[in-house]
Design goal:
Order of helices and strands: HHEHHHEEEEEEEEHEHHEHHHEHEEE
Number of domains: 2
Shape: elongated
CATH topology of the largest domain: FAS1 domain
Structural class: alpha+beta
CATH superfamily of the largest domain: FAS1 domain
Number of helices: 12
Number of strands: 15
Distance between the termini: 57 Å
Oligomer: single chain
CATH architecture of the largest domain: Roll
Low-confidence stretches: 63-67, 128-146, 244-252
CATH class of the largest domain: Mainly Beta
Radius of gyration: 20 Å
C-alpha cells in the first residue's frame, strides 16, 4: 500500500503521518496474496486515477470534527466513531478487544502497530474504490447515535478544529441522542438547518461543545440542560448516558 501511495504521488500524505497522525486502513495481506487486489493492473497508466482514489479512501486523519460523532450500542456499551477519509468519504469504525470492526462486523486482522502509526487490516471492495456501500449507519449496529447533531455541524461549517483554533483549546463535541432528536420539535429542528437560522444553529452547537481533558462524568455535569428556541419554546436536553427517558417540552 505504501508503494502504491508513492506510485500515485502521495508522498506528502505519507510524510504527514509524522506530523498529523494519519491512520492508514490497509486491506488484509491475504487479499494481495490471492490477487484480489492485483498490483500489476493498478500500476498501469490508465489505472492511475483509480489507484490514487483507492489509496485516499484508505487514509483517515483523526483531526476532523466527524471523529467526535459517535454511536453507542446500548447492550454492549461499545462505541462507534465516524471518521473521514482523505478522499472525503465517511465510515463508522469500532475497535474492541484489539480487533478492528466496521459496522459491528468483526474483521479478521488485529491492529498492527508500526513506526508511522497503527495500520488496520480491513476488508474493502476493490471496485469501485469508494466506501459508500459501508458508510451509511444502520440500526443493526446500535440504537443510540448522534448523527443528527453532525448534520447541523455540516450545515454550519463549524469544526472542532476551527473552534479549537479560535479558543486555543481542545474541544469535545457533546450531542443529544438520536432519540432526543426524534422527539424534538421538527419545526424547530428544520429551522436550525435553514440559512436564516445560521447564527442560532451556531449558538446551538457552541452550547454542546466543552473543553476536553475531563472525565465523562465531568463533561456530563457541565453540558447544557436546556435550550431556548427563537420562537420561545424551551426544551430540556437529554444527555448521552442519561437515565432520563427522553427530551421533554418545557410545558410538560
Amino acid at each position: 500500500m505504501a508503494n502504491l501511495a508513492l506510485h500515485v504521488g502521495l508522498d506528502d500524505r505519507l510524510n504527514a503521518a509524522y506530523d498529523n497522525g494519519l491512520t492508514f486502513l490497509v486491506p488484509a495481506n491475504r487479499r494481495f496474496n490471492r490477487a484480489e487486489i492485483y498490483i500489476p493492473k493498478m500500476l498501469q497508466p490508465d489505472m492511475f486515477n483509480y489507484t490514487r482514489n483507492f489509496i485516499l479512501c484508505h487514509m483517515i486523519t483523526d483531526i476532523y470534527h466527524e471523529a467526535q460523532v459517535f454511536a453507542m450500542n446500548e447492550q454492549s456499551g461499545e462505541d462507534q466513531f465516524l471518521v473521514k477519509s482523505e478522499l472525503g468519504t465517511h465510515m463508522w469504525i469500532t475497535s474492541t478487544e484489539n480487533v478492528v470492526r466496521f459496522q459491528s462486523q468483526e474483521l479478521l486482522l488485529p491492529d498492527q502497530p508500526t513506526n508511522n502509526g497503527i495500520f488496520h487490516g480491513l476488508e474493502y471492495p476493490l471496485f469501485p474504490p469508494y466506501i459508500t456501500d459501508f458508510a451509511f449507519f444502520t440500526p443493526k449496529s446500535t440504537n443510540i447515535d448522534t448523527s443528527d447533531c453532525f448534520r447541523i455541524f455540516s450545515q454550519c461549517r463549524l469544526t472542532s478544529e476551527d473552534i479549537a483554533e479560535l479558543f486555543d483549546t481542545k474541544l469535545t463535541v457533546f450531542c443529544p441522542t438520536r432519540e432526543a432528536f426524534t422527539l424534538f420539535n421538527y419545526e424547530d429542528f428544520n429551522r436550525l438547518l435553514s440559512p436564516d437560522w445560521y447564527r442560532h444553529a451556531c449558538e446551538f452547537l457552541f452550547n454542546h461543545i466543552t473543553e476536553g481533558a475531563l472525565t465523562r462524568a465531568e463533561l456530563a455535569s457541565q453540558a447544557p440542560r436546556r435550550i431556548k428556541m427563537l420562537n420561545g419554546a424551551v426544551y430540556n436536553l437529554r444527555k448521552s448516558g442519561d437515565d432520563r427517558p427522553r427530551i421533554q417540552n418545557g410545558n410538560q
